[in-house]
Amino acid sequence: MKELKIKVCGLKNQQNINEIEDCDPDYVGFIFYEKSKRFVEENQLITTSQNFKRVGVFVNASIQNICDKVIQYNLDVVQLHGDESPLEVKKIRSEILKLSLYKFIEIWKAISIKKESDIHKAHAYQHIIDKFLFDTKGKLYGGNGQHFDWQILDEYSYSPPFLLSGGISNKDVSAIKEIKHPKLHGIDINSQFEIEPGLKNVKMIKEFIKSINKHEQHTI
């Protein structure tokens, strides 16, 4: 199994972020959605090292708001986690490209999954985004803390790689390793690794990252 990238999402406490850096994640996620318990407020000055990519999570946000946050937080990825239509995503991508003169900024589109047909919503976005994030459909825009049926991933046949999200915990390591889809790029973790919303349990995250990419030793 190829090594999976790990995204730790929903961070907003500077000391906690510094501790998470020692876990060596590939992505860290900041939520810029006011209704989220993990919302990063305007007066929060967040700094990170250059060792991982910074993901800004937006829900039906204006293009101006997205661009402002890209600049303010030096984002590497814009994750669209709302009801953004393909046309809206194209417009956002166009504006983000103007900010990408000094580096490439990826566009991810989250798709909420409940039933098999949901995954085919990816078709309309496949040529205008860089990666998908498949989350569990629930009452909230993410952070519902539940799995969807991962067998639905077998129906995914589009080009962009994807990250798996939705209530993932240390208990899921074995099941994740059973997923053989060639487009599985990484795992997004959040609520199941928290002491409280926005404050992560560093020890649990270290254990997860170590376990998820540990190669089993077979003896003969």
Protein architecture, described:
Helix content is 22%, strand content 22%. By secondary structure, it is of the alpha/beta class. It has an eight-stranded parallel barrel. Strand 3, helix 2 and strand 4 form a beta-alpha-beta unit. The longest helix is centred in the middle third of the chain and has 14 residues, at 86-99.
Quaternary state, please? single chain
Order of helices and strands: EHEEHEHEEEHEEEH
What's the mean pLDDT score?
90
Poorly predicted parts: none
Strand content: 15-25%
Count all strands and give the number. Answer: 10
The coarse silhouette is globular
- Report on the biggest sheet: 8 strands, parallel, barrel
With strands numbered from the N-terminus, the spatial order across the biggest sheet is 1-2-3-4-5-6-7-8
Terminal-residue CA separation? 20 Å
Number of helices: 5
